[in-house]
Specification:
- This protein has 289 residues and is an alpha/beta fold.
- It has two domains: 4-126, no CATH class; 143-153 and 183-288, no CATH class.
- Helix content is 62%, strand content 8%.
- α9 (146-152) packs across α14 (270-288) and α10 crosses α11.
- The radius of gyration is 20 Å and the shape is globular.
Length: 289
């Protein structure tokens, strides 16, 4: 099975900057740990991102449902210049969005890139010796989940990031399930990064079960997260049971839960649970057909 692995510094630049932006919902990538770690590398870099990004915080949060696209538009870009043009010309943004957020956000990206692109190259070089090991590990894991990609007739695409914190970002494209996840540096991180990757892929087909646009304000995003957690529980239990304890610990903070306990915690409507199980059966049956 062909798998597309990418390491793209203009992607990472966006998530590097978003690590400084406090967001008041579950998409938040703000990380004090990352900021402190990076500050050591930036001690001789004169540009101070923090007061600039803080000025954008309120506008971003107040207009999140439109501006969240800054997380996903990088998937359409091949390099930094193309990304800047996509940001400036995206029809989903209003004139005020461009004036009060997009233009100053791009200015921050440009200034921060002076430091970050060299820093990224250093990290990429430092990780070159484990890169092949990580990719081979992921290839072997993907074999267990081949039925998903066969069923949807899509291939997996991975952008490994050195800067993304907390969450990944998934984006469905023509013939691809695509996602950005943290580059793992040891066996434990490989488990968590792969589970996060599966989570981002699963969103791209289970979100359709809700039959509505998903957003933060009406609770549909929270429900979509629960649906993915349950769907991946069933998939992992059937296809990759050795990973189930790690999975439960990661998402439910308890590796020894029964299915009934999981259903009680997630509190998903019974009809939706039936729809999820039906979908799982179809995917697995397609594998065995």
């Amino acid at each position: 099975m062909y798998i597309n692995f990418n390491y793209l510094k203009h992607f990472d630049l966006v998530f590097h900057v978003l690590a400084y932006l406090k967001v008041d919902n579950a998409s938040n990538l703000y990380s004090e740990e990352y900021i402190k770690k990076t500050a050591i590398e930036k001690q001789y870099f004169k540009y101070d991102i923090i007061p600039r990004i803080n000025l954008l915080q309120d506008y971003y949060n107040n207009n999140f449902e439109r501006l969240l696209l800054i997380n996903f538009l990088p998937f359409y870009s091949k390099d930094f210049n193309e990304l800047k043009n996509i940001y400036r010309t995206c029809n989903s943004f209003t004139k005020d969005d461009i004036k009060y957020f997009i233009d100053p956000f791009i200015e921050i990206l440009e200034n921060e890139s002076v430091f970050y692109f060299d820093y990224w190259e250093k990290m990429h070089k430092d990780n070159k010796y484990i890169k092949n090991t990580v990719e081979e590990n992921f290839k072997n894991r993907f074999k267990k989940y081949k039925c998903i990609f066969d069923y949807y007739k899509k291939k997996p695409s991975v952008v490994f990031s050195y800067s993304i914190t907390n969450n990944g970002r998934g984006f469905g494209m023509d013939k691809l399930f695509s996602a950005v996840i943290r580059f793992p540096k040891d066996d434990e991180e490989i488990n968590y990064s792969f589970i996060q990757l599966l989570h981002e892929y699963t969103h791209q087909f289970t979100d359709n079960l809700l039959g509505a646009n998903i957003n933060m304000k009406d609770g549909s995003h929270n429900l979509s997260e629960k649906i993915v957690i349950l769907t991946d529980y069933y998939l992992i239990k059937i296809l990759d049971n050795e990973l189930i304890n790690t999975y439960l610990k990661m998402f439910l903070n308890n590796k020894d839960m029964t299915e009934n306990e999981i259903l009680e915690i997630l509190n998903i409507d019974e009809k939706m649970v039936i729809d999820i199980k039906k979908l799982i059966d179809e995917i697995i049956w397609n594998k065995l057909r």
